[in-house]
Amino acid sequence: MTPSPPNVTSSRRDGPAQASARRPVHPGVVLAVLAISVFLSALDVFVVNVALAPIGQGVGETSLSKLSWILNGYAIVYAALLVPAGRLTDRFGGRTGFLLGLAVFTAASVGVAASGDLWVLVAFRFLQAAGAAVLTPASLGLVLTTAPPAKLTRYIQIWAASGSLAAAAGPVVGGLLVQVAWQWIFLLNLPIGVAALVLAARLLPRGRTSGDARMPDLLGGALLAVAIGSLALGLVQAPGWGWGAAPTVGSFVLAAVALALCLLRSARHAVPVVDLRLMRNPVFAWAGVATLLFYAAFAMQLLAITLWLQQQWHWSAVRTGLGVAPGPAMVFLASAAGRRLARRLPVGVVAALGAALVAAGTAWLALAADGHLDYATDILPGWLVVGVGVGLALPTLISSATADLPKDKASTGSAVVTMAGQIGTVVGVSVLVVLLAAGTPGRALPTFSHAWWTSVAIVALSALAALGITPRRRAAGASPGVAAG
């Protein structure tokens, strides 16, 4: 729901004095440009859920298994490129990385809007994700180097909160824009992106960061993308191909081989996609597991509630967006409460409590949702509880993941946990597609109920894993993590 601290290996240098060699620029203005850009990239994730059906009508495709690639394609590329992109930003400079990432994202958004074919659209979504994977770590690195030292924590919280605002605004914005045409949910990025590019080019500091500037393992990133993509392909196509069919088995075999090769390279490469040494830290390892499961469950919930309102209750996209928005809107408020709770309770307990609330809210949906159009009693109570649970659990998981890691490993660790969340998103969407495809035609309620109960089981496992993220001790030089808003 919120952007988490990705692969930023840079350290602070001389603070806001380097913001401009030509004229003083208020750090708050720089922060606004960076936060707006991150808001823009996060917004696209949430508007697409509501607009999936209108997009399908526009490109002549109704199959959910195929339309799911609009979501999965973005998450796969983002997950695979996040760590390498952060390393490349260290190598070539935050300003260069941010401008490049924002330019690619903006241009690709126009390409998505102009697409009349599903797979051309998915290809441009790949490019969007590549741009977002570059601009996200670059933007956080620039926040770190331009924020006044006394306001550093506050600036990071504002940067991260932009993702929460995107989560709350996305369904409504998407619902409103598709009333005109689905293309507008992507064309909106053009004027905002161009304005942000012009301002960023004038305001952002030049120069490279002082972090690790070695070339990352790009081949390892490609292998990871192949592994995740093949797994998703096998899952979403298995109901049509057959679970024992050669294409299905081949997809799973390719996923296993690509993952094995990625891990092998990660064990040997100087700058791996996944630093396997981090897995020796139990807090970090449990955080990764809990985050992957949590994202998988939430991705299922968000898409399922959207499809339920649109397909079964026959709500319009704008009404669906308004119906979905209250849950994400609770995240920002609940995350503030989570930070206060973490001062009194072990962070693992706070995260587990949040995941338990998500399970309880989803169980409400599974028990209460029926054919009667009673949103106030069937959907809203459970969905609000889900939003509160996400606000407690997700920022706590992300910010606590690196608590026991040395400072020089904290940013890489944050990127790996973020990557785990994106992988969870792909798995969650794919599992939902499988469950809906396996349902009995004409009996939607049992099918959606099964999907929600599956999500409950997954998020309950996440709650158990979250109990392991409480640091057993404060290691020397360990990082407290960065709050995700």
Question: What would you say this structure looks like, in words?
Answer:
The protein has helices at residues 27-59, 64-92, 94-114, 118-146, 152-177, 184-187, 189-203, 218-241, 246-268, 282-312, 317-324, 326-341, 347-368, 375-378, 380-400, 407-437, 444-466. The longest helix is centred in the N-terminal third of the chain and has 33 residues, at 27-59. The protein folds into 3 domains: 1-7 and 22-208, MFS general substrate transporter like domains (Growth Hormone, Chain: A, Up-down Bundle); 217-272; 278-485, Growth Hormone, Chain: A, CATH 1.20.1250. 59% of the residues are buried. With 485 residues, it is an all-alpha fold. Helix content is 74%, strand content 0%. Helix 8 runs antiparallel to helix 9 (246-268). It is built from 17 helices and no strands.
Helices and strands in order:
Blueprint: H1 27-59, H2 64-92, H3 94-114, H4 118-146, H5 152-177, H6 184-187, H7 189-203, H8 218-241, H9 246-268, H10 282-312, H11 317-324, H12 326-341, H13 347-368, H14 375-378, H15 380-400, H16 407-437, H17 444-466
Helix pairs in contact: 1-2, 1-4, 1-5, 1-7, 1-11, 2-3, 2-4, 2-8, 2-16, 3-4, 3-7, 5-11, 5-12, 8-9, 8-16, 10-11, 10-15, 10-16, 10-17, 12-15, 13-15, 13-17, 16-17
Count of discrete alpha- or pi-helical segments spanning 4 or more residues: 17
Q: What is the level 1 CATH name of the largest domain?
A: Mainly Alpha
Superfamily (CATH H level) name of the largest domain: MFS general substrate transporter like domains
Q: Could you give the distance between the termini?
A: 10 Å
CATH architecture designation of the largest domain: Up-down Bundle
Largest sheet: none
| Residue share in β-strands | under 5%
CATH topology type of the largest domain = Growth Hormone, Chain: A
Structural class: mainly alpha
Mean pLDDT: 85
Radius of gyration: 21 Å
- So what's the overall shape? globular
Helical percent range?
over 70%
Order of helices and strands: HHHHHHHHHHHHHHHHH
Total strand segments: 0
Any low-confidence stretches, pLDDT <50, length ≥5?
1-22, 474-485
What's the domain count? 3
